[in-house]
Structure formats: structure tokens, C-alpha cells
Amino acid sequence: MRTYLVTGGAGFIGSNYIHYMFRKYDNEIRIINVDALTYAGNLENLKDIENRDNYTFVKANICDKEAIAKIFAENDIDRVVHFAAESHVDRSIRNPEVFVQTNVLGTAVMLNCAKNAWELPDGTFKPGKKFLHVSTDEVYGSLSEDGGYFYETTPYAPHSPYSASKAGSDMLVKAYMDTYHFPANITNCSNNYGPYQFPEKLIPLIINNALHGKKLPVYGDGKNVRDWLYVEDHAKAIDMVQEQGRLFETYNVGGHNEKQNIQIIEIIIETLQEMLADDDPRKALVSKDLITYVADRKGHDRRYAIAPDKIKEEIGWYPETMFKEGIKKTIAWYFEHEDWMERVTSGDYQKYYNEMYKA
């Protein structure tokens, strides 16, 4: 049975990845989920699998060398999938040091612990071991509005403390691959959306605010462009890179769904109005009149767009979920999990598990 160490598995993308892997492999794999349970980590995301015999949760911070080394010492880890990171740009602008510590130092700890566990006396590594570092398209900086795409060869040009810290972590992984021939890959993905996303992010924020008749904040002129990727498609890409990707390579994972932020908000409003029943009182609250333009974010990149040509050609992955379908699936999930959203927005989600795993 192959053993996966997943960092940040209680977060949005990490928890979706764990669900995907159990759907695909069931009892053929074992997953150890390591998460510090910060505000973005929510074990309710994994409640329906928490009692599986082949799933283990460990509350630990990736910066804690002793805790991470102990996990490697006590388990024969075959795969590391490293999601754990501080990821919200606005928070990075307010408190950049936390992002540097988690994203750079935490990645260094993960790399070193994996290297120490997997390295053989002759400097090579145990066969079959792989480390996958999950990163972002934001490390590439900003594109012009009139064209161009991010490729794996695009020079790094981060503009926020968040993207700079992720660029730093990418460079560490590249250095380990070059210096030690460490068995790793890097994936750089576009903006994810789907179930379990923390409501400070654009899509769940707009869904939740619209349903409650609250203002829908739009930075600047609302014409900043992002490439949107349905989170399950991303999970599939990560699995395919680990199993079929060439070692030491970077793969860009994009959704072919470029949209302006204002377009995203308008699509959500229109989709909510279509999906809500006529007798649902929330339908009257959902309106474009809620759109409110606010001062632009500092260092706000204008456009991101990924060219996923390499992963398509080498591995055969492609984004299966177009935005129109994905946003309906996402909204339907939030309709079915209003209690989840309520506990997250109120902060109640942290109380039970924090008490259970209290240090």
C-alpha cells in the first residue's frame, strides 16, 4: 500500500485532493494528513473520511522540524504532496513575515526531512519516492491585457509578499532537484474554485454575500483577469503528475477559463437567480445593485493566464470542467452545505477540533 504525506490537507485544495484520491484509489493507498489547523484549516472538510483505517490526521506545523521528522521516521512515506501554505494576498500585505516563515521555511523543513528519510548512503534516493510541490501562477507576475500566457519557462516576477514567498519556495525545490538530484516536481496552478473554499476568497465570498443581500466588493475597475480552474480538475492533475510526470520538471496547470473579476461576479449573480426557486426569499436579495467598487489592492496584478500545453502533451491532462458548469456545481454544493458556511463564517468550525487537538 502506497503511503502519501499530504501537508495542508485540511485546507481547500488539500481536502479536495484527499477526497479525490480516496474516490480513485479507495483502499489501495494510505494518506497521512498534516495540518496546523490555522484559520484556513477545517477538518469538517474531511469529516466523512476521518474514520477510515487508511487515513490519519496529525496536527503539526510544517516549520516544526521535530514533528515532521518524526512522521517520516515512523512511516515509510512514498509520496509527499505539499499544499501547506499561507495563500491570501491581502493577508500577506498586512503580515508578510508569516508568509515567509510558512511558505519558505516550512518548505525547507519538508524538503530536508524528506531528503534525510529517502537518501541512500551513496547519495541517490530510494526508488519510487516522489515529492510534489504545489505552487501558483502568481510567481510569474502579471501579463498584459492584450495577450500572452505563462509558460514553465516564463521568468519569475512576483509582486506581492504572498507570490514572493511562493517563488522562494519554488526556488528551494529547484535547488534541491539540482543540487541533490532530489526526486521532485513543481506544479503552478491558476485560481482554483469549488467546494470547501474559505469564504475570504472571491467566489465563495460573492456567493455568500449575495445570498444575504450584502455588498459585493470589487477591487479597482473590476477588470483584472484570472484563469479559473475547478478544484477537482486540479486534484486530478496533481495525481497524474506524480504518476506520469518526468522527475525534476515543472508543470503549469490552467483552466482555460479566463474571466475578469467583474464578469465572475455577474455570472454568479445570474446563476444564483437561475438556481434559486421563485418562492425562495433570498432570490429577491440577489442583485447587481450589490456590486460595490472599492480601492484597488496594492500591487494588484492585472492578468494571469496559464498555457497548460506541456502537461497536456506529456501527461494527457486537460481541464474537464468549463466555468459555466463548474460554477453551477460550486453553488449547488454551497446550497447543500449552508451549515458548513455558517460555521466557517461564525468561527464555530475551529472550536470542536481545536479542543480535540489542543496542544
UniProtKB/TrEMBL annotation:
Enzymatic class: lyase
Pfam families: GDP_Man_Dehyd (PF16363)
EC number(s) reported in the record: 4.2.1.46
Protein name per its UniProtKB record: dTDP-glucose 4,6-dehydratase
Necessary cofactors: NAD(+)
Presence of keyword Lyase: yes
Family statement: Belongs to the NAD(P)-dependent epimerase/dehydratase family. dTDP-glucose dehydratase subfamily.
GO molecular function: dTDP-glucose 4,6-dehydratase activity
Gene Ontology terms describing biological process: nucleotide-sugar metabolic process
Keyword Cytoplasm part of the UniProt annotation: no
Gene3D superfamilies documented for this protein: NAD(P)-binding Rossmann-like Domain, UDP-galactose 4-epimerase, domain 1
InterPro entries with a match to the protein in the record: dTDP_Gluc_deHydtase, NAD(P)-bd_dom, NAD(P)-bd_dom_sf
Catalytic function, reaction form: dTDP-alpha-D-glucose = dTDP-4-dehydro-6-deoxy-alpha-D-glucose + H2O
Keywords: Lyase, NAD
NAD(P)-binding domain: residues covered: 5-330
